[in-house]
Specification:
This protein is of the alpha/beta class. The strands form two sheets. A nine-stranded mixed β-sheet has the order 1-2-3-4-5-6-7-8-11, sandwiched between helices. Strands 9-10 form a two-stranded antiparallel sheet. Strand 3 and strand 4 form a beta hairpin. Helix content is about 45%, strand content about 15%. The protein is globular and about 65 Å long.
Length: about 375
């Protein structure tokens, strides 16, 4: 990875500046958003419970928990824990009051939802929504977004924001990385009118988009100027589904899908380093995904996603880490599951997956 200034560097430079000296900014948003990946159950009060705990004290207690509670799984950057420790020790965030930690995995409803709220020293609230974690059900919910008008985590995000907004007054910001960014914007758009009036900003850090219906709603138009999405130049995740054109392109030191990692984003003082256009790879990948999605009906997308995740779930694994650790044993189970499908079902899976390969070739030709 090329040498850049990262969000860790930002905390070393500006962590000694309180919000009274330097107002909350976009880099602060991704730092607090990544803290939502920590398992703070039993340390931070749950939604509806009274009381708060300072960020500094919460991390002091978290550092004493068993090592297994500090493992994020296969896809969450390992730097996340050190970032949270650094944030909790700096004057900018040490005295922030943490409350309303929730982590819900509901396999029956196909929902993965987690959030953490901060009462900051400037009197504002920040609701941080966790992105997709290591769980297979979390990934399935992401894919469900391609054919459902809304998913359970989105409904819960709006209810969560209404709940924490009642606990304290003041302006409201929301934020999240990946799916958490989608939830951050969804929550403010679908919040109660009195909550929407308090919204200062909703930050989506390389989060997927929304349906055209939501982007055309009066509630979204009311908040449009307060919702902002950041995408790295080769973003794939952040360009999924439909996006408002109100997004900013930021420079990443990584390539391809690895640019989704916020620790690869280039920071200058209190903002990211912006670019004027996306990379050729990003445009190509975006075009290929859109060609593929557009080639299928919502019903076909649902069938394909159901079948693919049924194959993964047949292993009994609950997380991507477990799936990877299963190695050849799990691969054999998945092959057996597919072999058990009738000929028509296997043919349909191959046909829909074949369209993905065809879309890649078509997008590559268009890119030339």
């Amino acid at each position: 990875m090329k040498k850049i200034n990262t969000i860790n560097d930002y905390l070393r430079w500006r962590g000694d500046l309180t919000l009274a000296h330097a107002p909350f900014n976009e880099v602060d948003s991704v730092i607090l958003s990544m803290c939502a990946f920590l398992d703070l159950a039993g340390i931070v009060p749950a939604p509806g419970e009274l009381g708060t705990v300072t960020f500094h004290d919460a991390m002091a207690r978290f550092n004493k928990t068993p090592e297994k509670s500090k493992r994020f799984g296969a896809i969450i950057p390992d730097d996340t824990l050190e970032l949270a420790r650094q944030a909790a020790d700096c004057p900018r965030f040490a005295d922030a009051e943490l409350f309303a930690f929730e982590n819900t995995i509901d396999e029956q409803r196909e929902m993965q939802f987690a959030a953490l709220s901060f009462r900051l020293s400037d009197g504002s609230l920040f609701a941080a929504f966790r992105g997709t974690d290591d769980t297979i059900v979390g990934w399935k919910e992401d894919f469900n977004m391609t054919f459902m008008s809304h998913v359970p985590a989105q409904d819960r995000a709006a209810a969560y924001l209404n709940q924490v907004a009642r606990q304290f007054p003041g302006g409201i910001r929301t934020g999240g990385h990946s799916k958490g960014g989608n939830l951050a914007i969804w929550s403010v758009v679908h919040a109660e009118p009195t909550v929407r009036q308090r919204v200062i900003r909703a930050y989506s850090n390389d989060g997927p988009g929304f349906s055209r219906e939501m982007l055309e709603s009066s509630e979204y138009r009311e908040l449009r100027d307060r919702c902002i999405t950041f995408v790295p130049q080769s973003s794939l995740v952040g360009m999924l589904l439909t996006h408002d054109e109100n997004y900013k392109i930021i420079r990443s030191a990584q390539t391809g899908l690895l640019q989704h990692d916020p620790f690869s984003w280039d920071v200058e003082r209190d903002h990211y380093v912006y670019l004027t256009e996306r990379s050729a790879f990003g445009e190509h990948s975006d075009a290929a995904m859109r060609l593929w999605f557009d080639s299928m009906t919502a019903g076909e997308r649902q069938t394909l996603i159901t079948d693919l995740f049924e194959v993964l779930e047949s292993t009994g694994a609950k997380t991507l880490t477990e799936l990877g650790d299963g190695g050849l044993k799990y691969l054999a189970v998945m092959r057996k599951t597919v072999a058990g499908y009738d000929k028509a079902r296997r043919k349909n899976m191959n046909r829909l997956l074949g369209r993905f390969i065809a879309a890649q070739f078509e997008a590559a030709k268009a890119d030339k």
